[in-house]
Design goal:
By secondary structure, the chain is α+β, with helices and mostly antiparallel strands. The chain has helices spanning about 5-30, 35-40, 60-70, 75-80, 90-105, 160-165, 170-175, 185-190, 200-230, 235-240, 240-260, 265-300, 300-305, 305-335, 340-355, 360-375, 415, 445-460, 495-515; strands spanning about 130-135, 140-150, 155-160, 190-195, 195, 380-385, 390-395, 400-405, 410-415, 420-425, 430-440, 470-475, 480-490. The chain folds into four domains: about 5-10 and about 195-300, no CATH class; about 30-175, no CATH class; about 375-425, SH3 type barrels, CATH 2.30.30.60; about 430-515, Alpha-Beta Plaits, CATH 3.30.70. The protein contains 19 helices and 13 strands. The strands form four sheets. The protein has a five-stranded antiparallel beta sheet.
Length: about 525
């Protein structure tokens, strides 16, 4: 896949621009204005508690709701997320101080936000408390804690705990925030674009250029290393990796932008996008590494002689790619806080349905894998499968093709072929020579001894006959003839060569019978 870095660079700037714009607009979106007193006056018709109109039913909703209200400077609504009984003016000061600590105290950390109503029960705190982050100060670490409370008959909500609010002024005085802005001109700080200071837009643009410079260095280093180890001079082998490396560079740009984000909400958005792009880029990169390995296997001598192995190599190639995609999607679902149990259950149910619908197809597929792996027959072998007999022309994942002696092609499904008794004539290490000679009844005993001795001599002296198993015996009297059995193995695996050797031995047997003075018997009956 060819990737144009200039187009990707432009799309990167547009993507970051609109993502920051959407985050800003989303932060200014007003929350529902339902009055808590009216909600409390409504009769409860459900056993489960109603959701809080301000989104405080979960720790994640409380933190995001507070940041959205504080970013648009609506501190009257922001104090609704605080567990405080201070006067409105004092409560607004606490909200401003908490906003500063969240935006800058957690600048290099990702807050732990649970989207469950009961919170994270495995964080080591009490069930009704939730730690969303820790801020380092000169006096030590300061934990920002949420607490689940209930006011009257309203549903349980998560609020910033009174204990956290009690220490906010002290932490705010000790916490030196916004140190970068001290060196920025006042004009760049005062001018805002979509609620963001102008100096941040300039810094993000410069960091994007730095990220793409790093990308160019990575691509150049990859080109040198790839050609050094693979010794490949094909440009397409190098350019194909620009796509995933460009996605990883895009992830790096989003991460750098998150470090200079104006608020915690925007930083969380950038970090989530960066993590998602990292998974996509790594998955894409793994998919590209599968193809060279499969191509090397397909170029090997053993595989090029067997279409079945080629089919297996291609099947494994696609299967491994599907596994990488599923793993990447699973990580993305996990980061999105989706219920993985429900997703896996859905995939299991869908897999069962597909298995029932494609039962014969899967049967033939697994049958083909068994035939190719066990190799009872191979391409070019002459074999007998049930009532069919011929030369194997192709072994696929669905069926095996046999070229019969009538020059017709028979396709046998692999599912049936795996249950048949296969007779492979090509794998013989030697071919049986077995014939019965019938002589007339007027043949004397001396003539029989002469014929037996001479035929044995022919078999023992023949270079292509196995002498250890060769035998010629007088086996008995039949209705119209006396019978001799000739048994030997011919040391030949090619059937055409065996026919020539068999012809030579049979002609010598005819000469021996004629020299003995007797003849072969004809079917007759004496009354």
């Amino acid at each position: 896949m060819k990737v144009n870095l200039n187009k990707t660079f432009i799309s990167l700037i547009i993507c970051i621009f609109f993502s920051m714009f959407s985050a800003s607009v989303y932060a200014q979106k007003p929350a529902p204005s339902t009055s808590p007193s009216k909600e409390a006056a409504k009769p409860v018709q459900h056993e489960t508690p109603l959701d809080d109109p301000l989104g405080r039913s979960t720790p994640q909703g409380t933190v995001i709701g507070f940041i959205k209200s504080a970013d648009k400077e609506d501190y009257e609504r922001a104090i609704e997320y605080l567990d405080t009984k201070q006067p409105p003016k004092r409560a607004q000061q606490l909200a401003e101080q908490l906003q500063v600590i969240l935006n800058w105290g957690l600048a290099d950390k990702t807050p732990k936000l649970s989207n469950k109503a009961e919170g994270d029960l495995e964080d080591g705190l009490k069930p009704n408390k939730e730690r969303i982050g820790t801020v380092k100060t000169s006096t030590g670490a300061f934990d920002i804690i949420l607490e689940r409370v209930q006011r009257g008959t309203d549903p349980h909500v998560w609020l910033f705990s009174s204990e956290t609010l009690r220490h906010l002024p002290e932490v705010h005085r000790d916490f030196e925030y916004n140190r970068v802005e001290h060196y920025v001109p006042k004009y760049l700080r005062d001018v805002r674009l979509f609620n963001y200071p102008l100096w941040r837009w300039i810094a993000i643009a410069l960091l994007i250029l730095l990220a793409w410079f790093i990308t160019w260095v990575i691509i150049l280093g990859h080109r040198i290393i790839y050609r050094q180890f693979t010794r490949s001079k094909k440009k397409q082998d190098v350019k194909r990796f620009k796509g995933p490396i460009g996605v990883l560079a895009l992830a790096l740009s989003f991460y750098i932008a998150s470090l200079l984000s104006y608020s915690l909400l925007t930083r969380l958005f950038f970090i989530r996008v960066s993590e998602t792009l990292v998974i996509i880029g790594l998955t894409w990169l793994c998919l590209y590494f599968v193809d060279p390995i499969a191509d090397r296997i397909l170029r090997s001598k053993d595989v090029t002689q067997s279409s079945g192995k080629i089919a297996i190599a291609r099947l494994l190639n696609k299967t491994i790619k599907a596994i990488f995609i599923i793993i990447g999607a699973t990580f993305i679902f996990y980061m999105a806080n989706l219920n993985l149990t429900a997703v896996i259950t859905g995939l299991g149910v869908g897999g069962i349905a597909v298995a029932f619908a494609a039962q014969k197809t899967l049967e033939n597929l697994f049958g083909g894998v068994m035939i190719i792996s066990d190799q009872p027959i191979r391409v070019g072998d002459y074999c007998k499968a049930g009532e069919f007999q011929g030369t194997v022309e192709d072994i696929g994942l669905r069926s095996t093709k046999l070229r019969t002696l009538n020059r017709t092609v028979v396709s046998v499904p692999n599912g049936q072929l795996a249950t048949m008794s296969l007779e492979n004539f090509t794998l013989r290490d030697k071919i049986l020579f077995h014939h019965k000679l019938q002589l007339r009844y007027d043949t004397s005993a001396d003539q029989l001894r002469y014929v037996i001795a001479e035929i044995r001599k022919v078999l023992y002296e023949h270079p292509k006959v196995e002498t250890a198993t060769a035998r010629v015996r007088f086996t008995g009297f039949h209705v119209s003839a006396v019978e001799l059995e000739v048994f030997a193995y011919v040391l030949e695996t090619v059937y055409e060569n065996f026919l020539a050797i068999q012809e030579d031995i049979l002609l010598r047997c005819i000469d021996i019978v004629e020299k003995s003075g007797t003849t072969f018997a004809l079917p007759s009956q004496t009354t």
